[in-house]
## 1
Amino acid sequence: MVCRNILGGIRRFAAPSSRVFHFLLIGLLVRLLLAPWTSYPYDTYPFYGAVVGSLAGIGPYGNVLFTYPPLFSAIIYPFFWTISHFMDPASFGTFAPSMIELSRATGMTVPFITAPVFNMVLKLPLIIGDALVGLTIYRSVNGRAGEALAEKAFLVWFLNPLVIFVSSVHGQFDVLAAYCALVGVLSFGDRRFLMSGAALGLGVLLKLFPAYLVISLGLILLSSMINGLREGRKAESLRPLTSFVLGGALSLLTVLPFLISSSSFLEYIFRRGTYSSVGGMNMWFISPLLSKMGGEGVSGGGAIPLGTALLVLGFVLTVAVTLLAIRKHLVKERLLACSAAVLLVVILTQSVTNPQHLIWLFPFLVLMSCESPRMLTKMYLLTVLGLLYLLCLQSGFVFLYPLAEYVGWPSVSFLNQGVEAFFIGTGLQRAALLSLLGAGGFLTLLSVLLPSRLDYIQVAACRILRRGDGD
C-alpha cells in the first residue's frame, strides 16, 4: 500500500497532464540522443579527473583538476562506481595525441576525449535536473495561474535549446544548483523555512551563487525577527530564522565525509575567486575585443585579485538590493522578482558570465512571465545569444569529439582543422563577435531590472512585430 502511494505520487509529479508527459518524453529523447556523442573537452576533463580520483580513493580533488564544491562529485560517484563494476575505468576516455598542437594553439581544449558511456553517465543527473526544474515550474504556475499557463511554462523551460545544450551537449551542472535555488525560494515563499535553508545550502555545495540568495533571504528573516522582538513576539519571531539556519546546517551533512577527511578541498574551491580573467555576457563584455587588439583587456593584477574584489562587490550589492526591497515592502508580494534581482546583480558583475550561467536565472524568468509576459522575450533572446556565444568560442566542431573518436565520422583530424581554422583564422572578427554577443547579453539582462515603460528590449520587440504585421 505504501509503495503504491509512493509510485502514485511520483506518477502525478512526473505526468501531471498528458501534454506535459508528451513534452517530457520528447525532451528526454532529444537529450538522450545528444548526451553520449557530445562534450566540451576542456570542461569535461576536470569531471573525469574527479571521477577517476574518487574511484582510486584519492577523492575528487586528488588530481588538482576539480575546483567546484564537492556535492556534484558526490552525486555522480554512485553512478560511476556502479559502472566501474562492469567496465574498466581506464576506458572512460582516451588520450588524443593529434589534439596536442590544437590544445597549445587555443589554450581552450585538452587532448583527451571522454567515452560515450562516461558522457551519458555524467549527464544523466543533469537531464534529471532539467526535468525536476520543469515539473517544479509546472506545479508552481498551475497553483497560481491554471493548467494552460503551467503547460506553456513547462514547454518554455524543458524544450529550451540552451537548456538542452548546456546539460546534454556541454555537460555543465548549473541546472542542479538552479533547481536548489528555485526550491529554496519557492519554499521560502510558502514559509517552509527549514526546507528553504536546506535547499539553498545544497545549492551552495554545488555552485557558489546560491550563497547570495542565502544572504538575501537571511537578511529578510533577520529584519522580520528584529521587528517581531520589538513588538514582544519572541518565540514567533525567532522560529523562522532558526529554521532557515538549521536547514542550511543540515545540508552540510552531505559533505561531512569531505570535512572529516580533509578541509583542503576549500583551497581548490576558493581558488576560483582569484582568477583574473574577465568577460562574457556581463559588464566586462568588451574584454575579448580589447585583448585581441593588443591590450591586456581588463586586468586583475592588483594587490587584491579582481575575482575576489568582484566577489565582495556582489555580496555588497546583494545586501543593498535586499535592504531596498525590505524598505519598499516588496519582499512579500515580489519575492520572485527580488530573488531574480539578486541573481542579476551576481551575473552582471561577476568576472566571467558564460552562457550556462543564464540557467540560474531562467526558472525565475519563466515564473515571472505569468504576470509579466515580457520576461519570455528576454529569455528567448538570451537563449539565442547564449547558443551563438558557445558556438563562437571555438566553433561547434569542438563539441563533436566523442562522435569523431568513437564513431569515426567526422574524423578527429577534420575537427582539429575546423577548430583551428575558426579560432586562429578569424582572429579579430571572432573577438569582436564575442564582445558583440556579450554586449547583447548584458543589455538584455540589464533590462530585466527595468520597469516596463523603460524596457528598451520590449519596445524594440514590439516595433519589430508591428513592422512585420504591416508588411
## 2
Amino acid sequence: MAGFRINLFTPAVLLAVAAVGWWWSARMADDMMMDAAPSMGMDGMNGEQVLTIGAFMVAWLAMMTAMMFPAITPVVKLYGRAATAGRVAPLPFFVAGYIAVWTSIGLPAYVAWRALMDPIDDGRPWAGRLAGVVLLAAAVWQLTPLKSVCLRHCRSPISFFLRFGARVTRPVGALRTGATHGLFCLGCCWALMAVLVALGTMNLAWMIALALLILVEKNAPAGERIAQFAAVAFIGLGAALLFRPETLTILT
C-alpha cells in the first residue's frame, strides 16, 4: 500500500510544482510584455530589461521546475520508494541537489538574456545570425556521443542509482547524488536551454515546445531517435536564420 501511495503521490507533487512553475512563467511573460509596451523607445530600453537579477532567478527557477520536473518523474519516484522504505535519505535532499545544479545556471543565463533582449527586440541582423549559430551548435550537440551518454543516464533511473547511488543513505550523499543527476540532465539539455535564451527566455511557445522535447527524449521509447530528429529541425532553423536573420522576429 505504501508503494502504491508513493507511485501516486510523488508524480502528483512534481506535476503540481511544475504547474505552479508554468503559471508563474506565464505571469512573468505577461508582465514583461505589458511593461515593454509603454517603455519602447525610451532611452533605448524596454520593459524586459528592468527585470533585476533576483526577479530573473525567481523566473528561472519557475521555468526550470515547469520544464524539467515532469521529465524527471521516473527517477524521483524510484528514489521516493527507497526513501519511504528507510533505505536512503529523505527525498527532498535528492531533489535539492538536482535543483541546485539548474539554479546555478541562472546567472550565465541572466547575463546572456540581458545582452540579447534589446538586439532581438530591435531585429538586429547579428542577433538573428547569432541565434542561428546557437541552433546549429545545439544540433551538433544533439548528435554527439556525450549527449547520448547523458541521455542514457537520464532514461535509465535504475542504472543511474546502481552506479551513483552508493552514498544516498546520508543527506549529504543524497544531495551529491541529486546534483550528479542534475549534471547529467544539464548535459542533456544545456543546448536546448541555450536555444531558449537565444529565441527569448520567457517565450512561452518555445518553452512549451522544448519542454515537450525534453519530456519525450527522456521518457519515450524512441527518445534517442527523437533527439536526432530535433537536431535536423535545429539545422533547418539555424540555416534559415543565418541566411535570413530577420526570421528571428517571426520566431520570437
## 3
Amino acid sequence: MFDSIAPAYDFMNRAMTFGIDRLWRRRAVKMMRDVAHSDVLDIATGTGDLAIMMAKTMTDAKITGLDLSEGMIEIGRRKVAESRLDDRISFQTGDCLALPFADNSFDCITCAYGVRNFENLAAGYKEMRRVLRPGGLLVIIELSTPPSALVKPFYDLYTRYLIPAVGRMVSKDTRAYSYLPESIAAVPQRERMCQIMSEAGLTDCRYLPLTFGTCTIYTASTK
C-alpha cells in the first residue's frame, strides 16, 4: 500500500494538515536539542521529511531512516541528495518489529505518523528500547482524536469523508486514505499510549497534544 502512495505522499501530508505537519515536526525536533544524540534512528521514515529536518537542525547528528517501503525510501534518497545531506542521512529497509541493529545502537529514536501502523505496538516499543542507549530519548509524533466534543464532529467529517475523497483523486489508491481514520481511532492515545511505553521498559513517558489534540507528541527515555 505505501509503495503505491509514495509519489503523492508528501503532497497529501501537506494538503491533509494544511501544512501544519511541518510545525508538528519542528516542535518535536526542538524537544531533542537538550539530548546528546549523535546517532539517530528515524523509524517509518517514509520520504525522509523528519530525517531531513533533524539533519538541518542537529548538525552533529548521523541519521538512519528505516522503512518497509522501498518506494518511500527511493523518494527519500532523492530528497536527501537534493538537500546535499548524503553524508549525514542514510536509508535502509527493515521491520520495526525486528530492528536490524545491535542493542544500544542509538542515542535518539524518532517515529512520525508510524506507530499506528504497527501490527504489535508493545513489541515495537520493546525493540526501540532494545536499540536505545542508556539515557536515550524516544520521540513519537502521531495523529490522534481530539477530545473536545465541540471539535470532534468537524474532525470526524474531515477524516472520514474529505480526506479519503481527496486521497483517491490524488493517489489513485482507494485503500490508503480510507484506512487513515480507522487507524487513528484504533491506536492507543494519550495516557494509554504512555502506559504501553512504560510497560515496554521506557521511562519518564509524557505527551503533548497539539492543534486541538489532532496530533500528539510522546516522549520517553531509557535508564
